[in-house]
Amino acid sequence: MSGDMEEADEDERSLELSTLSAIYPELLIDSSVPFSGTINIPVEPNRPIFVSFPPSSGGEQPGLPTPPNSDDKDIGADKPLRSAIPNPPEIHELRHMPPLQLRMHLPHSYPDEQPPELELVSHWIPAATLKRLEKEGNTLWEELGHSQVLFAYIDHLGAAAEDAFGLLSSKTEPMTVAPELRIALLDHDLKAKQAAILEVSNALLRSADTTHKANGESVTELLSQVNYFRYRLNKT
């Protein structure tokens, strides 16, 4: 009898993961660890994020020597430098942030007795925020009456990503990120913008081709839009 119950538990967990894979083709099932998977949650907030990168250690402008005074007796003596002037932080407006990685494992007694084991991984999201989001997964499992929760949790994270997981205290105050992440964040944002422009450009080309074949109408206007988006792509 216990063997039948164990097989039913496996079937339930397998069914949830296979259903999730059908909804999210990007979900990676870990064959080395049964009932485990990984998915990246896109982070493209509904308004731009102003990110502040503080100067790295040692990023200061050297102080200037104090100009000599005509009353000084030791005109040629070395004078102390003024205190170094710290460089101001760099502030950038970003629309695309690196994705949040969700690692999940369904334990033996899931979903009736145990919640899913959830781990969130990100280099730019603070550890405290990741822990809060992980706890929200357990809370969601409780609220759903100890039932299958992965789809609801992924949807929950996607909705939270639209508000940058509550990291923005105001519309104008920048979010401070470690300076060593500067290149990675700026590069990700640039490539995402280029991909979006290229996608629109290709869609316009397909539309122009379809319009021309269907009714022989002029496609000058569509082609001008394509050229505009290609110009944007080259400028990014």
How would you concisely characterize the structure shown here?
The protein is an alpha+beta fold and 236 residues long. It has helices at residues 2-23, 127-143, 150-161, 182-215, 220-235; strands at residues 28-29, 36-43, 49-53, 60-61, 85-86, 90-94, 97-105, 117-121, 175-176.
Secondary structure blueprint with pairings:
Elements: H1 2-23, E1 28-29, E2 36-43, E3 49-53, E4 60-61, E5 85-86, E6 90-94, E7 97-105, E8 117-121, H2 127-143, H3 150-161, E9 175-176, H4 182-215, H5 220-235
Helix pairs in contact: 2-3, 4-5
Description:
This protein is an alpha+beta fold. Helix content is 43%, strand content 17%. The chain has helices at 2-23, 127-143, 150-161, 182-215, 220-235, and strands spanning 28-29, 36-43, 49-53, 60-61, 85-86, 90-94, 97-105, 117-121, 175-176. The protein has a 4-stranded antiparallel sheet with strand order 1-2-7-8. Strands 6-3-9 form a 3-stranded mixed sheet, with helices on one face. Strands 4-5 form a two-stranded antiparallel ribbon. It is globular and about 60 Å long. The termini are far apart.
How many distinct helices? Answer: 5
User: Low-confidence spans: pLDDT under 50, at least 5 residues?
Assistant: none
The number of distinct β-strands equals 9
Q: What is the topology, as strand order, of the major beta sheet?
A: 1-2-7-8
Q: Proportion of β residues?
A: 15-25%
**Average pLDDT:** 81
Determine the N-to-C terminus distance. Answer: 64 Å
Spatial extent as radius of gyration:
27 Å
Shape: globular
Q: What about the largest sheet?
A: 4 strands, antiparallel
The ordered string of helix (H) and strand (E) elements is HEEEEEEEEHHEHH
Helix fraction by DSSP (H/I, runs of at least 4): 40-55%
Secondary structural class: alpha+beta
